[in-house]
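Running this now, will post back.
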Amino acid sequence: MVDVSEKIDTVRTATAQAVINPGKEIMEKIQDQNFSTGKGSVFHTAIIAGVMGAKKTSELIPFCHPLQINNCNVDIKIESDKLVIVCTVTCTGKTGVEMEALTGASVAALTFYDMCKALSHSIRIEEIKLLEKTGGKSVFKV
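Update: finished.
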């Protein structure tokens, strides 16, 4: 792990997104965020999974510091023929939350795939990227 003992605690926020192309077959079934399959509410389950993923990032990614997250928000938007998952994570600490935001968005996307794979295997997770990071030494924004 990187030694962060000399850094000062600051409020740190990161926002990441994952884009899903569920395919025409599934998009025709999605009317709103109450979309369900035999496994239950797809959007609500993906949101919960994204938050859980963000909280467990240090258990999944080697060398990530375990962080006490102050806030995690996962939002899923329907945009024409795609879904955009946005995960924003905030903490007060010595290291950033980029990996937590990226993991949250990724786990939410994977959960969507798992919940819908019985309907179609043409689902594509097309893009996972960091949108913004604040706090610490550097600021990043797409």
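Residues 68 and 91 are 6 Å apart (CA to CA). More later if anyone needs it.
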